[in-house]
Design a protein that fits this description.
Elements lengths: L2 H23 L6 H5 L7 H4 L5 H29 L2
Helix pairs in contact: 1-4
Length: about 80
C-alpha cells in the first residue's frame, strides 16, 4: 500500500468517527406539536438560530459528511486504478 492510500484510509476513518460522534451529540427535532400549538420563530432562539450549538453541530456534520464522501471516492479511485 502506498503512502497516499494509507493517508486517505486514516482520514476516511477519522471522518467516519467524527460523523458518528457529531450525529450522536445532536438533539432531536421536536417540532411536531410546537407548530400546531402556535410555536413562533420570532423568539430569541429563532433570531439566533445560526449561532446555537445545535446549528453548529449540524453544520459540522454536513461538512464532515461531504469530506467523507469525497475522500471515499478518491480512495476508491486510487485503489481501483492503482495510483
Amino acid at each position: 500500500m502506498t503512502g497516499l492510500k494509507i493517508a486517505l484510509s486514516i482520514v476516511d476513518i477519522i471522518l467516519a468517527v467524527a460523523i458518528i460522534i457529531l450525529f450522536l451529540v445532536q438533539e432531536g427535532n421536536d417540532q411536531g406539536m410546537g407548530v400546531v400549538a402556535g410555536g413562533s420563530t420570532e423568539s430569541y432562539y429563532g433570531k439566533a438560530k445560526g449561532r446555537t450549538l445545535d446549528e453548529q453541530l449540524k453544520r459540522w456534520t454536513v461538512i464532515c459528511s461531504v469530506l467523507f464522501a469525497v475522500v471515499s471516492v478518491v480512495l476508491y479511485l486510487s485503489v481501483a486504478r492503482g495510483w
